[in-house]
Specification:
There is one protein chain. By secondary structure, the protein is of the alpha/beta class. It contains 6 helices and 7 strands; from the N terminus they run ααββββαβααβαβ. A 7-stranded mixed β-sheet has the order 3-2-1-4-5-7-6. α2 crosses α6. It is globular.
Length: 208
């Protein structure tokens, strides 16, 4: 709970950001019949804004189910504890700013479990800081344990049985703390730019 009162406080701009990102970018990647799983859901800004047949959210924060809307299944637990999910039941996995908080062994465990829980052709979609672009701010978050760049993250995924199908080294700015304006039209414009200024978060998609 202390983390959510210091580093990861509630922010109305976060909902504006994610509502726009989902509508403009992520929703077109998701079919209506999909089962979408979000790992490290936090305030549930992503999963609440996605529309599909089945939505499941996982987070260790005991208070996170309070932020999940009706129709989303909330499971309090670690991303390494996915035994509650049926095998071959998930089509789209999303994780934002999660795996830098885990050790290599934990990340490998998550990937192994997802290999059993995901259907053939399912995708793992990862958004997180790119150390090559965000090295100055990377450890301002005291819970960051592991360093990843766009190269090392892709190599790690490939080494553990996931084929990288897309890698964007710069996708979004590092965080909302930079004071940049958060307006839907600006976010949509930013997503369309061929080169994104201040983009220190990477986006990587991998497939089984």
């Amino acid at each position: 709970d202390g983390y959510h009162h210091t580093r990861f406080r509630p922010d109305v701009n976060r909902e504006i950001l994610w509502a726009t990102l989902c509508a403009s970018y992520f929703q077109p990647l998701i079919e209506p019949e999909f089962h979408v799983l979000e790992l490290g859901a936090g305030y549930a800004n992503f999963i609440n804004n996605i529309r599909c047949r089945t939505r499941t959210a996982v987070d260790v924060w005991p208070a996170f189910p309070q932020h999940v809307e009706s129709g989303v299944t909330a499971h309090v637990g670690c991303a390494t504890e996915l035994g509650f999910l049926p095998d071959e039941s998930v089509d789209f996995v999303f994780a934002s700013n999660l795996f830098e908080h885990l050790t290599h062994a934990q990340f490998a465990d998550v990937l192994a479990q997802l290999g059993r829980k995901a259907r053939s052709g399912a995708t793992l979609n990862i958004l997180q800081p790119n150390y090559k672009r965000a090295y100055k701010e990377y450890f301002d978050d005291y819970t960051h344990l592991t360093v990843y760049s766009d190269v090392s993250l892709c190599d790690f995924l490939e080494a553990h049985g996931w084929r990288v199908i897309e890698c964007m080294p710069g996708f979004l700015p590092f965080s909302l703390k930079g004071g940049l304006p958060v307006q839907p039209w600006l976010i949509r414009l930013y997503l369309r730019l061929p080169w994104k200024p201040l983009a220190k978060q990477m986006f990587v998609r991998a497939q089984l």
